[in-house]
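Notes from the 1:1 (GR / supervisor)

We went over the backlog. Supervisor wanted to see one worked example end to end before approving the batch request, so GR pasted a single chain during the call. The sequence is below; no edits were made to it. Supervisor asked that the structure be written out right there so they could see what the output format looks like.
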Amino acid sequence: MSKTDTRTQILDAAADLFWSKSYHGVNMNELSRFAEVNKATVYQYFRSKEELALASIKRTAERTEEYLYRSTFAETSDPKSRLINIYEKAYQLHLDVFRRDGNCRGCPFVNLGVELAVSHPPMRDAVSKAFDSYRKYYGEIIDDRWKTNEKPDGFDKDKTILSLLTNMNGCLVASKLENRPEAILDGQKQALRILAM
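Structure output shown during the call:
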């Protein structure tokens, strides 16, 4: 196995464990077992658990961008279909986890951000950067939505992007708190209302 493959294997294992158990709920021994490498190998790539968590946020952001956004935008150019499909894919992912584990995990970024934002400020920055990487997709949906329609009075694109991001985060948190994947579909309805679709 190449060094890149080993590093990715460790990152994916860490991301999954942090998402399912929390940062403080995972130790490096457990992580090395889950990644199927020895602990020395983990430390060869990451000097600390915090460094590993920061890298796992970046990896999760890239995987989320590919799964939810890039693939959706490649499948359709219709803004309403894009918005619907983003939520459908998020719902399907969380439904699969729920069926397997019996629990909804919520948003991996919000989970780590809420747990560590005060004690580890770089974590807050990493989570914010992850969210910022999705802004362009919502911006394009908004632009396409209003290409052939007149925007409402007082329409603010940046505030609307923030509303859509906040809505997605909120429905993922609700799915975890309620242990109900369908909360994501509730969020889908709200996202459509935000854009009057």
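Supervisor's comment: The mean pLDDT is 94.
Batch request approved.
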